[in-house]
Design goal:
The chain contains 21 helices and ten strands. With 628 residues, it is an alpha/beta fold.
């Protein structure tokens, strides 16, 4: 049996890598109106992102100061050790004026001092390392909370663009790449600069000529290394983009695993996954090649510096301008000077990966929330008296309008049935009422107040939604029913379940209301999930109720029971219901008939039947389908 060919959108890892190399040399033009983290971020935006990151880090300034203080003490203790060894050689071992006993005494004193400095430096450095890890964890936790909260409030259209896997990728992979950024961007460079400064100061005081030799080797190499490593940031931008796409694909594949198996696409999906993983490996190796070249050069430079010190120091020894102790100490100082600079260079390479993640994270944090409250926004009224649509237009884009000039007055307590063919705009009207989207033009008013002038959080407290796509969380039945009102009592939860006719099957479950229902309620049938969704709305006790095909997953018997429950629930509430069944539509006080986003008929069932228009045709077609 041959392997199924993958979809047309599938690309091999070689093609992905070639595209990356092309984009690296010829960056694609980006839409200035679109803020995403998938392309290289402009330098101005990078600075803004890094400044935003600094604001978060500044919250932990005292912890950073304490870590830097410990690092300074450790640096002083470590940097002075080669000087102490060199002085011991010159002043003790090479000093003919001292007796053997005096040499032993002074040597023991120097060794004990050196040992004390080593032990103290290691102990303080371990304490500094622990505090650094704790600081990294706190900064990362703060950023994760900020990003998670912000993504929760993203516009729905933007969330759909990112996809579930893409969001998870940002909360895990992107943020994990920021682990240690505080150390890489602040602590390590400052510590390295201090160590180099202390070491150079001691070396210069000890022997200026040998100090200049080390500087001549160090400066050009460090400068060339920074220039070489700089472009790696673009590699990581592309890497994170591909990883986010892969995570999204994984989420989609397992979310639709039934479809994958039904169409025998396991091999194709496996091949797509393997190709994407291989492409990520190629990108990672591309960055590793850059950094490995620098690593090789520095691994040669440090021994070369020792050779240079030995050669030039030996010549200086012959003419009496250097001592054996100074030469030995200088060879120790090459590590003190070269090591911190190499650490800065190495950290700079790792820093590019973290800065690419900073761009992706803070590009999203700078995006606007779902619907920002107006400066003069007020709390929602406690009682709903009227909802008015005034010439409402809406489109997901400027060239694709979905709702056209929709006007309607809905008195409090009325039930509005939105009817029409698929794609007529029924769900969009309900989404506008729920403020998932904002009208492109026109206004929706609550008691005469435009919705955009009402604080979103207070307005949503008035809402209860039962949708066709029932979503339940992984938890117990009681936790799901109380999701809209966490403080609801057990008695209120049970009463709501009985009203939604859910108590009858809950009683048969092993743990009753404390029974876990699994992710998305997979342990329940579709009808059971729908009844729990209705019960959840009952517990929330909303003033505005939105029912989007609320009985679509129920059989005839369950539907009749639920209709009775919904009729009781709708009493005293303003209800927008989307349904195709005549039993649901006919009892509504207002029936709004939509066609391609336009309100073409409006009235109650009797009035619209007398008109013998579009609604009459819909009813007759449904009756014929039912065999009436």
């Amino acid at each position: 049996m041959s392997t199924p060919r993958p979809a047309a959108s599938w690309r091999s890892s070689r093609q992905i890598y070639q595209q990356f190399r092309h984009d690296l040399k010829h960056p694609p033009a980006t839409d200035p109106q679109t803020t995403t983290a998938t392309a290289a971020t402009p330098s101005t935006t990078r600075r803004e992102n890094f400044r935003a990151y600094l604001k978060v880090v500044f919250l932990f300034r005292w912890q950073i100061a304490a870590i830097l203080g410990l690092a300074i003490v450790v640096s002083v203790l470590e940097v002075y050790q080669p000087r102490l060894i060199g002085e011991a050689i010159d002043q003790i071992l090479q000093n003919p004026a001292l007796s053997t006993a005096e040499k032993n005494r002074q040597l023991l004193h120097s060794v004990l001092m050196l040992l004390g400095m080593v032990v103290m430096a290691r102990a303080l450095d371990s304490w500094r390392d622990y505090r650094t890890h704790r600081l990294n964890a706190r900064v990362l936790s703060r950023l994760r909370r900020l990003l998670y909260g912000h993504l929760l409030r993203f516009p729905l259209a933007r969330i759909h663009d990112l996809k579930t896997g893409g969001i998870v990728s940002r909360l895990t992979g992107d943020l994990e790449a920021l682990t240690g950024l505080v150390q890489m961007a602040f602590i390590s460079p400052l510590v390295a600069v201090l160590r180099v400064g202390f070491a150079f100061f001691i070396v210069w005081q000890w022997n200026p000529r040998l100090a200049l030799i080390l500087v001549c080797l160090l400066g050009p190499m460090a400068f060339a290394s920074f220039l070489w490593i700089g472009p790696i940031r673009q590699v990581w931008h592309f890497y994170f983009k591909r990883k986010g796409e892969l995570d999204s694909r994984i989420s989609e594949t397992f979310g639709g695993v039934r479809v994958v198996r039904a169409f025998q696409r396991e091999n194709a999906e496996e091949l797509r996954y393997a190709s994407s993983q291989h492409a990520l490996a190629r990108l990672n190796l591309h960055a590793v090649r850059y950094t490995s070249i620098v690593h090789i050069l520095w691994s040669v430079l440090i021994p070369l510096a020792n050779v240079a010190v030995l050669f030039f120091g030996g010549r200086m020894l012959f003419d009496g301008t250097a001592s054996i102790g100074q030469i030995t100490g200088m060879m120790g100082f090459t590590g003190m000077l070269m090591g911190p600079v190499y650490m800065i260079v190495q950290t700079f390479g790792d820093l590019q990966k973290s800065l690419a993640a900073v761009d992706r994270v803070f590009d999203h944090l700078r995006e606007p929330d779902e619907l920002n409250d107006a400066p003069n926004a007020v709390d929602a009224p406690s009682i709903v008296r009227e909802i008015t649509f005034e010439a409402v237009d809406f489109g997901y884009s400027d060239d694709r309008k979905i709702i056209h000039d929709f006007s309607l007055v809905v008195p409090a307590g009325s039930t509005v049935a939105l009817v029409g063919a698929s794609g007529a705009g029924k769900t969009t009207i309900a989404d506008l009422v729920a403020r998932f989207y904002r009208p492109t033009s026109g206004h929706i008013r609550l008691n005469g107040i435009p919705l955009e002038n009402i604080r979103l959080h207070s307005y949503r407290r008035l809402l209860g939604i039962v949708s066709q796509d029932t979503f339940l969380f992984d938890g117990t039945i009681a936790e799901n029913l109380a999701y809209g009102r966490p403080k609801a009592t057990r008695e209120e939860i049970i009463a709501a379940a009985r009203q939604a006719h859910a108590d009858e099957f809950i009683a048969d479950l092993p743990q009753g209301y404390d029974t876990p229902i699994g992710e998305r309620g997979t342990r329940l049938s579709g009808g059971q999930r729908q009844r729990l969704s209705i019960a959840r709305a009952i517990v929330a006790d909303p003033q505005i109720l939105i029912l989007d095909e609320a009985t679509s997953a129920l059989d005839t018997h369950s539907e009749r029971l639920i209709q009775e429950a919904l009729e009781k629930l709708e009493v005293g509430r303003t209800t927008f219901t989307i349904a195709h069944r005549l039993s649901t539509i006919a009892r509504a006080e207002i029936i709004a008939v939509l066609d391609k986003g336009r309100l073409v008929e409006c009235g109650n069932h009797a009035a619209l039947m007398e008109m013998r228009g579009r609604y009459w045709h819909m009813v007759e077609q449904q009756r014929e389908g039912l065999g009436d």
